[in-house]
Amino acid sequence: MNIDSDYSFQDQDPVYLFTNENAVDTLRVIGGVNGERVLTVGASGDHAFEAYLAGATHVDTFDINSAQNCVVELKTKMIKNLDYANFMDFFFEKNEFFNQKIIKPLYPKFSHELMVFLAKYIMYGNALFKYHGAICAKYIEPNISYIRSPENFEKLRDALPEKINFVHCGLDGVTKNFQEKYDVVILSNIFDYLYLQDMIREPRMIRFYNEILRPIANQNLSRKNGRICMNYMWNANHGNWANFMSHFERAIIQRPEHKFDARVVDSVYRGRKDDVVLVMTQNMGRQK
Q: Which residues pair with 41 in a beta bridge?
């Protein structure tokens, strides 16, 4: 499969330390994940963390950027072994940002890859990141429940495993690397970076469905009420997208087992237009 684009994420790109999506509300609008299995893009780890906090029984992650697994490991080890104040200082306090004295007691627990990643920070500083928490805190903190309070942080500590499974692959490698069934698959906004040579919405979505969504649904998605969060969009026109997804389902795809809709998410930018998540739901019978 050749997913061509003018720009795409690459291995060893600068990393996201926190999501810039409303991960909490995304889980709400798809009906929650309590008691369910989740497959999600790794990124900052926040989709996985929020899924565990919301009651998911198991979460697997993948990412084309292997450096994101260092972020997931770092945050997991910090949540499991440090207190809330240390975590918040390390990521959000300007004078303490990425102060490695805070995490030095955890060095024996860190993988070789994570230690190399931390050494790169000493060399490259903030160029290692897409953005960092000390700058973007006002947009990050309200949308991530485990950093809203020490109580939520402790709940996540109890729910989180010692290690979150991560596979280094892109979207076209998901069906090759994962054989399990999942109730929810979260793809963040990867679609925004696919097929950019074709700027028309409809053919891009058709390719996305045929090359990515349908193979994942066939192999990895629960047959009954499995959901794929296809794309996250900021300050989007919900009515416009709802109409398009209805047209896409009825006139283009015409597959009764797959339903498409656009769901409103509280915007990460408070007071602005809503964000929108595109969702595909699979219903092929009672068996998962």
A: 62
Instruction: Give the containing element (helix H, strand E) for 233.
Output: strand 224-233
Closest CA to 181 of 225, 134, 221: 221
Higher pLDDT, 268 or 231: 231
Give which of 195, 197, 174 is closest to 64, Cα–Cα.
174
| Cα separation, 211 vs 3, whole angstroms | 8
pTM: 0.92
Class of residue 275 by CB neighbours under 10 A (exposed 0-12, middle 13-18, buried 19+) = buried
What is the SS3 assignment for 281?
strand
Phi, psi of 27 (to 5 degrees): -65, -35
> Is the model more confident about 1 or about 217?
217
189-248 pLDDT per residue, tens: 999 988 877 667 899 999 999 999 999 999 999 999 999 999 999 989 999 999 999 999
For 89-133, write each residue's pLDDT tens digit: 999 888 999 999 999 999 999 999 999 999 999 998 888 888 655
CA angle 112, 81, 90 (to 5 degrees): 80
61-82 pLDDT tens trace: 999 999 999 999 999 999 999 9
- 265 phi and psi angles, rounded to 5 deg: -120, 140
Taking the domain 12-288, which CATH number applies?
3.40.50.150
> Residue 195 has which token pair?
């097929």
Per the CB < 8 A criterion, the answer to whether 171 and 193 are in contact is no
Tokens of 30: 């798809």
CA angle 13, 17, 23 (to 5 degrees): 115
Helix (H, G, I), strand (E, B) or coil at 278: strand
- Count the alpha carbons within 13 Å of 61 in the hemisphere toward its beta carbon: 28
